[in-house]
UniProtKB/TrEMBL annotation:
This is OmpA family protein. One of its GO terms (cellular component) is membrane. The lineage of its organism: Bacteria, Pseudomonadati, Pseudomonadota, Gammaproteobacteria, Cellvibrionales. Residues 182-233 are annotated as: Disordered. It comes from the Bacteria. Residues 77-205 form the OmpA-like domain. InterPro entries: Bact_OuterMem_StrucFunc, OmpA-like, OmpA-like_sf. Keywords: Membrane, Transmembrane, Transmembrane helix. Residues 205-216 have a biased composition (Low complexity).
Length: 233
């Protein structure tokens, strides 16, 4: 009997086991609470960063819209879905790649907001030239075909932007001739829409995957159409 009493006396009391269990549960609860608080803090920081990002984006858009306010009011420029459309008569005369003074002045006013917009995204500005489907008129000694005319006009706009202060390594020119019309070439009105120069932000080579993803979204916000109403090319 004494041996049984000795064995029972050496067993831990039930309250001690219960206490150890509760201590373990409290520890687990504390860990979960700490994790939850940390997760909420991270969410709050991410939300704050996202709000700041959106506010900065809004400021860039406002700056661009302010730069376009006067030409928008005068009908020289349109702004739809983030796309800038410049009246063709503002840029070039018939069969010419020489930038007119009014067009140069307008492009100069866009350099500052465009530079700010591109700098925030570490992107480049692609200036692309397009024409309608009509061939170059016979006797034109300056351009052999629509490819050459579209290339020269894109280069002219690119150089004008650089002369107005845009960094040369932030902008480049491309030519598409009559290969990518925005509408079918069926009459003078439709052809005037296809005679244009577009400006669109694109990712830099070697940009991170995230930057490329956001750039693809942003491209549609800043792409610009410039219809050239009086050009035969």
């Amino acid at each position: 009997m004494s041996e049984i009493d000795d064995e029972l006396s050496h067993e831990p009391p039930i309250w001690a086991i219960f206490g150890d269990l509760m201590t373990g549960l409290v520890g687990v609860f504390v860990l979960i609470l700490v994790w939850a608080l940390g997760f909420q803090l991270e969410l709050a920081q991410n939300l704050k960063q996202e709000i700041q990002k959106r506010e900065a984006e809004q400021q860039r858009r406002v700056a661009l819209e302010q730069a376009l306010a006067d030409p928008l009011a005068q009908g020289r420029v349109t702004l739809r879905d983030g796309r800038i459309g410049i009246s063709g008569s503002v840029l070039f005369a018939l069969n010419s790649s020489e930038l007119q003074p009014e067009g140069r002045e307008l492009l100069s006013s866009l350099v500052k907001p465009l530079t700010m917009y591109l700098g925030e995204r570490d992107q480049l500005l692609m200036v692309s030239g397009f024409t309608d489907d009509l061939p170059i008129q016979k006797g034109n000694l300056h351009y052999q075909d629509n490819w050459e005319l579209s290339a020269q006009r894109a280069l002219t706009v690119t150089r004008a932007l650089i002369e107005a202060g845009m960094a040369p390594d932030w902008v480049f020119a491309a030519a598409f001739g009559d290969q990518q019309p925005v509408v079918p070439n069926v009459d003078n009105a439709s052809r005037s829409q296809n005679r244009r120069v577009e400006m669109a932000p694109v990712p830099r080579a070697g940009a991170s995957q995230n930057s490329n993803s956001s750039a693809a979204t942003d491209t549609s916000e800043l792409a610009s159409d410039t219809s050239e109403r009086h050009s035969s090319g």
